[in-house]
From TrEMBL:
This is Ferredoxin. InterPro entries: 3Fe4S_ferredoxin (IPR001080), Fe-S_cluster_ET (IPR051269). The keyword Electron transport applies. Pfam families: Fer4_15. Ferredoxins are iron-sulfur proteins that transfer electrons in a wide variety of metabolic reactions. Keywords: 3Fe-4S, Electron transport, Iron, Iron-sulfur, Metal-binding, Transport. SUPFAM superfamilies: 4Fe-4S ferredoxins.
Protein backbone atom coordinates (compact mmCIF):
# COMPACT_ATOMS: atom_id res chain seq x y z
CA UNK A 1 0.00 0.00 0.00
CA UNK A 2 1.44 3.42 -0.94
CA UNK A 3 2.41 5.70 1.92
CA UNK A 4 2.25 9.49 1.85
CA UNK A 5 5.42 11.18 3.00
CA UNK A 6 6.33 14.83 3.06
CA UNK A 7 9.74 16.32 2.34
CA UNK A 8 10.48 19.36 4.50
CA UNK A 9 12.98 21.91 3.26
CA UNK A 10 14.16 25.20 4.68
CA UNK A 11 15.92 27.96 2.78
CA UNK A 12 18.48 29.07 5.34
CA UNK A 13 19.48 32.00 3.11
CA UNK A 14 16.15 33.72 3.81
CA UNK A 15 15.47 32.35 7.32
CA UNK A 16 15.50 35.21 9.82
CA UNK A 17 15.66 32.98 12.90
CA UNK A 18 12.29 33.93 14.39
CA UNK A 19 11.82 30.45 15.85
CA UNK A 20 8.19 30.18 14.73
CA UNK A 21 8.89 26.82 13.09
CA UNK A 22 10.45 25.42 16.27
CA UNK A 23 7.47 26.63 18.30
CA UNK A 24 4.97 24.81 16.08
CA UNK A 25 6.98 21.76 15.01
CA UNK A 26 9.84 21.16 17.43
CA UNK A 27 10.14 17.56 16.24
CA UNK A 28 11.04 18.77 12.76
CA UNK A 29 12.95 22.02 13.32
CA UNK A 30 15.64 23.29 15.68
CA UNK A 31 17.57 26.51 15.97
CA UNK A 32 21.11 26.27 14.63
CA UNK A 33 24.20 27.76 16.25
CA UNK A 34 24.06 30.62 13.74
CA UNK A 35 20.51 31.58 14.89
CA UNK A 36 18.88 30.27 11.71
CA UNK A 37 16.54 27.30 11.87
CA UNK A 38 17.51 23.82 10.69
CA UNK A 39 15.41 20.88 9.55
CA UNK A 40 16.09 17.97 11.91
CA UNK A 41 13.54 15.59 10.39
CA UNK A 42 13.42 16.12 6.61
CA UNK A 43 10.88 13.34 5.93
CA UNK A 44 7.60 13.29 7.89
CA UNK A 45 4.34 11.40 7.58
CA UNK A 46 2.27 13.67 9.85
CA UNK A 47 2.44 17.07 8.24
CA UNK A 48 -0.10 19.02 10.30
CA UNK A 49 2.38 20.81 12.62
CA UNK A 50 4.83 21.37 9.77
CA UNK A 51 2.13 23.01 7.62
CA UNK A 52 1.29 25.37 10.50
CA UNK A 53 4.99 26.18 10.88
CA UNK A 54 5.34 26.80 7.14
CA UNK A 55 2.33 29.09 7.02
CA UNK A 56 3.59 31.00 10.08
CA UNK A 57 7.13 31.46 8.79
CA UNK A 58 7.58 35.23 8.38
CA UNK A 59 9.93 34.86 5.40
CA UNK A 60 8.31 31.88 3.67
CA UNK A 61 11.54 29.88 4.02
CA UNK A 62 9.80 26.51 4.55
CA UNK A 63 8.51 24.30 1.75
CA UNK A 64 6.69 21.00 2.15
CA UNK A 65 6.43 18.60 -0.79
CA UNK A 66 4.25 15.50 -0.81
CA UNK A 67 5.56 12.24 -2.22
CA UNK A 68 4.14 8.72 -2.34
CA UNK A 69 6.35 5.73 -1.63
CA UNK A 70 5.73 2.01 -1.77
CA UNK A 71 3.65 1.91 -4.94
CA UNK A 72 3.74 -1.87 -4.89
CA UNK A 73 6.03 -2.16 -7.94
CA UNK A 74 9.03 -4.39 -7.36
Amino acid sequence: MPEEQYVVELDREICMGSGVCVSYAAGTFAMGSDAAAEVTTPIVTDVSDVEVAASGCPTGAITVTRRTVGSGKQ
